[in-house]
């Protein structure tokens, strides 16, 4: 069983109520639906009562407006409403009118009458909701929610309420509709309520008493946000909050949940979900007992219109019981204090109260300490009004260092002085007092610096959605939430392109159906158009990701660098192009403060280029590189056997996605040459592809013909390969296509590797790289593993993207 509470806006119009009906009727389990009054009605009822009390005849039109609002909603929902419903509602309106008339006549508004008047909001909305929702039964909260009076307020009588609720809902099946907010006094049975915003409380009381599976608070925002969205436009939804954090925020003015509503469900760890009635698919926020996500600050909240009262003495040392006398006196006057700051030198104590209570607080303090003041042992209290308190909340505050310092610094830098500061009784809260006129600005700068700048965004343009690009998009989508949660990193894919079409959107383009959208909504592009669009979007923190093998795309990098766009590429063309071009690209990127990363150009996801750079940066010198760099060729020579002839292994490599789309790029050694050139350059050597000697194993004429001819001719090589293979087998040797750089000599060749050599055992399409350096001299460094395949290549591209985020 779950309890669903719908707030005022959620039941405020016929349209909203229809939405509630859809949400509730879609449930398979039994539910209790708690409703608020139609949005704004509680205020209007209180206004009308106030007018009547003052003898203002305008209460009649205020009443008429309330009545009309309910009749209109009824008409819009039902056309002609069921007679019994109309009758009940009209009966309630009539009784309400009678109460108001009575108040007007007598010019008094006793508490019990106010309680009754204001109760009609929820009583009417619940009537309507129960009639609208199929199969729903109305349960009257006045029968089972009980309060008792204390210091002018009505507090929940938990024991009586729990008992009545359990009795009333025993064996509940289906849908129950309950008016929120309203209650009765246990003794007098007068109508009372749980305080403004109290429908949340009703729902929570029911959830706890009946051990509900969950409490859902349906409101008009997508969840609990990092700050009040009405003040902070950039606030965003918090996925999960602990009860402790939620309580701090709600007690400090986050109106989204009525703070007392968290108390009943907290000890039972009944999760609370905050959901948007008008956007039910949004994930919302879950509040439950759990450790925080490591982020020191979860949210901020504020209370405006407060005052600070300061009690001071030349020295309070030796004055016994000051605090207890102070707070005792304040509590007897029913003045609530929500912030205390005491100096350790014991010369003063400052506390925060509502502006409205400031004078009373001052008087109370002066009276309590009149003897000390008259002796000069204490000074009369001082009051500073029109202030606001900002609370920064998070379980991580307990462990984080320097948060208060950071708060003071950013406020100071923005010209805002901090008048008092309290670091929480709860460990989860740092509260600062500033002048009321700086409240909005304070919230904005604090939010910006704790939530926005720590929430790093990277905006990606992904070009090429073949095997690697497709996998990459899949991987990013799969990791996105974790990265946001654990790394405060938001990866946005803001552009996707294939050879002739592109799709751009600042809101992200990688929906489930991105391929289809690319076809239907994508704009036709040329490489130049693509470049202009990417640059034209002018998004901060952009990365262009090249998952193509296209020279035209590689030709765009320099323009991207010039516009502060980093490039991550699986495309080998740029890094293996003319040395001058390679050098120019690297230098331009460096000058512009952006990154040019191409780790996947060699060994797919294996950390080869990064390792070479790390060695070089630490002062080592790479003397020799020996490597098996072609996953394709290694696959071919590992697969060839008495049963599988050479030609078939080539076909298999292509079909399984190991080879370049045209396998001749692999067979010609061209792919390995490019890789060797890239590695050597990264190792600090100036080398061109033409410097590499190639010893090939497929005759030249295989490379000049068409693809069809190539495939047709390929089996003609099988017999010779089989003969050689048998010889090798007898000699316990294996073929490896080895790339080598040593002493300014560069070569690629098919070598026969004897048993015992580190290249001998090299499975499938694996790569192996031996780096001999000044430091790794006798025992070269060896990097080995999957060197081909879309998954690992995409993962390598992903890793490059992540390293940009880490700058
Ligand atoms: P309901 O009528 O559904 O109970 P409320 O008006 O009581 O709704 O609470 C929801 C409102 O709380 C939101 O519309 C929003 O303006 C306000 N609010 C204040 N602080 C926050 C916050 N941190 N997160 C979400 N909403 C907040
Ligand atoms: N209708 C009441 C109020 O406006 C209770 C609630 O909506 O939660 O305060
Ligand atoms: Mg509310």
Can you characterise this structure?
The strands form five sheets. This protein has an eight-stranded mixed beta sheet, with helices on both faces. Helix 2 (41-53) runs parallel beside helix 4 and helix 15 (467-487) packs across helix 30 (790-805). The chain is elongated, with a radius of gyration of 37 Å. The protein has 807 residues and is an alpha/beta fold. Adenosine-5'-diphosphate binds next to loops. Adenosine-5'-diphosphate is lined by residues 7-10, 36, 197, 219-221, 224-225, 227-230, 254-256, 299.
User: With helices defined by DSSP (H or I, 4 residues minimum), what is the helix count?
Assistant: 30
Order of strands in the sheet with most strands: 3-6-2-1-9-11-12-10
- Which stretches are poorly predicted, pLDDT < 50 over at least 5 residues? none
Instruction: Give the % helix.
Output: 40-55%
Name the beta content range: 15-25%
What general form does the structure show? elongated
Number of strands: 31
Largest sheet: 8 strands, mixed
Heteromolecules bound: adenosine-5'-diphosphate, aspartic acid, magnesium ion
Mean pLDDT: 92
Radius of gyration: 37 Å
Structural class: alpha/beta
| First-last Cα distance | 49 Å
Oligomeric nature of the chains: single chain
Question: Which helices and strands occur, and which strands form pairs?
Answer:
Elements: E1 2-6, H1 14-25, E2 31-35, H2 41-53, H3 59-78, H4 83-106, H5 111-132, E3 136-138, E4 146-150, E5 153-156, H6 158-168, E6 175-179, E7 182-185, E8 191-193, H7 199-209, E9 214-219, E10 240-241, H8 243-251, H9 262-265, E11 272-276, E12 285-287, E13 299-312, H10 322-332, E14 339-342, E15 348-354, H11 358-368, H12 370-375, E16 382-393, H13 403-413, E17 420-423, E18 429-435, H14 439-452, E19 456-463, H15 467-487, E20 489-497, E21 501-504, H16 514-521, E22 523-524, H17 527-537, E23 542-546, H18 551-554, H19 557-562, E24 566-569, H20 573-576, H21 579-592, E25 596-597, H22 609-617, E26 622-628, H23 631-639, H24 646-655, H25 664-667, H26 670-682, E27 692-695, H27 701-704, H28 707-713, H29 718-730, E28 733-742, E29 745-754, E30 766-773, E31 781-786, H30 790-805
Bound molecules: adenosine-5'-diphosphate, aspartic acid and magnesium ion.
């Amino acid at each position: 069983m779950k309890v669903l509470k719908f707030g005022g806006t959620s039941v405020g119009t016929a349209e909203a109520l229809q939405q509630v009906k859809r949400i509730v009727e879609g449930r398979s389990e039994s539910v209790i639906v708690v409703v608020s009054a139609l949005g704004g009605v509680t205020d209007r009822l209180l206004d009308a009562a106030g007018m009547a009390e003052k003898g203002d005849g305008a209460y009649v039109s205020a009443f008429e407006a309330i009545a009309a609002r309910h009749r209109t909603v009824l008409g819009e929902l039902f056309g002609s409403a069921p007679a019994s419903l109309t009758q009940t509602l009209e009966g309630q309106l009539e009784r309400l009118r009678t109460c108001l008339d009575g108040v007007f006549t007598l010019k008094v508004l006793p508490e019990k009458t106010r309680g009754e008047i204001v109760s009609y909001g929820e009583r009417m909305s619940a009537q309507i909701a129960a009639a609208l929702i199929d199969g729903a039964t109305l349960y009257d909260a006045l029968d089972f929610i009980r309060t008792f009076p204390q210091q002018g307020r009505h507090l929940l009588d938990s024991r009586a309420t729990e008992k009545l609720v359990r009795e009333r809902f025993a064996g509940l099946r289906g849908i129950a509709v309950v008016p929120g907010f309203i209650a009765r006094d246990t003794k007098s049975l007068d109508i009372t309520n749980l305080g403004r915003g109290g429908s949340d409380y009703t729902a929570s009381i029911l959830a706890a008493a009946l051990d509900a599976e969950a409490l859902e608070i349906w409101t008009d925002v997508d969840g609990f946000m990092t700050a009040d969205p009405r003040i902070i436009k950039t606030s965003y939804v918090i996925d999960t909050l602990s009860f402790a954090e939620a309580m701090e925020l709600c007690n400090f003015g986050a109106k989204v949940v009525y703070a007392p509503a968290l108390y009943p469900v907290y000890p039972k760890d009944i999760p609370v979900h905050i959901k948007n009635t008008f956007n039910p698919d949004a994930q919302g926020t879950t509040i439950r007992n759990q450790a925080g996500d490591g982020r020191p600050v979860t949210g901020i909240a504020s209370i405006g219109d407060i005052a600070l009262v300061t009690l001071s003495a030349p020295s309070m040392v030796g004055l016994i019981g000051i605090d207890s006398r102070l707070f005792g006196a304040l509590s007897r006057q029913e003045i609530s204090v929500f912030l205390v700051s005491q100096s350790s030198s014991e010369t003063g104590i400052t506390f925060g109260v509502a502006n409205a209570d400031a004078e009373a607080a001052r008087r109370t303090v002066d009276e309590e300490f009149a003897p000390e003041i008259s002796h000069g042992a204490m000074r009369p209290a001082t009051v500073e009004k029109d202030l606001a308190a900002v609370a920064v909340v998070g379980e991580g505050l307990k462990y984080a260092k320097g948060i208060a310092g950071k708060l003071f610094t950013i406020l100071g830098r923005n010209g805002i002085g901090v008048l008092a500061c309290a670091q929480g009784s709860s460990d989860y809260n740092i509260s600062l007092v500033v002048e009321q006129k700086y409240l909005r600005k304070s919230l904005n700068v604090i939010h910006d610096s704790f939530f926005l700048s720590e929430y790093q965004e990277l905006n990606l343009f992904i070009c090429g959605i073949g095997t690697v690009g497709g996998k990459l998009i899949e991987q990013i989508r799969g990791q996105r939430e974790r990265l946001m949660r654990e790394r405060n990193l938001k990866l946005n894919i803001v552009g996707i392109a294939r050879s002739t079409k592109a799709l751009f959107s600042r809101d992200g383009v990688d929906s489930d159906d991105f391929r289809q959208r690319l076809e239907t909504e994508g704009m036709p592009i040329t490489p130049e158009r693509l470049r202009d669009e990417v640059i034209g979007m002018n998004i901060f923190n952009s990365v262009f990701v090249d998952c193509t093998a296209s020279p035209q795309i590689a030709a765009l990098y320099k323009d991207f660098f010039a516009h502060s766009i980093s490039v991550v590429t699986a495309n080998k063309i740029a890094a293996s192009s003319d040395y001058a071009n390679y050098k120019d690209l690297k230098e331009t990127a460096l000058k512009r403060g952006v990154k040019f990363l191409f780790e996947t150009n060699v060994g797919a996801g294996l950390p080869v280029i990064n390792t070479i750079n790390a060695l070089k940066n630490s002062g080592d010198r790479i003397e020799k590189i020996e490597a098996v760099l072609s996953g394709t060729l290694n696959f071919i020579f590992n697969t060839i056997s008495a049963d599988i002839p050479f030609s078939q292994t080539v076909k298999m490599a292509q079909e399984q996605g190991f080879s370049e789309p045209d396998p001749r790029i692999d067979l010609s050694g061209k792919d390995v040459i490019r890789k060797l050139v890239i590695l050597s350059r990264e190792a600090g050597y100036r080398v061109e592809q033409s410097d590499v000697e190639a010893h090939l194993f497929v005759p030249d004429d295989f490379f000049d013909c068409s693809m069809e001819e190539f495939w047709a001719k390929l089996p003609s090589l099988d017999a010779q390969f089989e003969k050689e293979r048998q010889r090798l087998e007898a000699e316990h040797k294996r073929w490896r296509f080895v790339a080598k750089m040593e002493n300014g000599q560069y070569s690629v060749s098919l070598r026969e590797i004897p048993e015992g050599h580190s290249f001998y055992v090299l499975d499938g399409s694996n790569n192996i790289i031996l780096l001999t350096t000044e430091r790794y001299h006798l025992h070269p460094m060896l990097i080995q593993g999957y060197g081909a395949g879309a998954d690992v290549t995409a993962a390598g591209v992903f890793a490059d993207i992540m390293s940009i985020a880490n700058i």
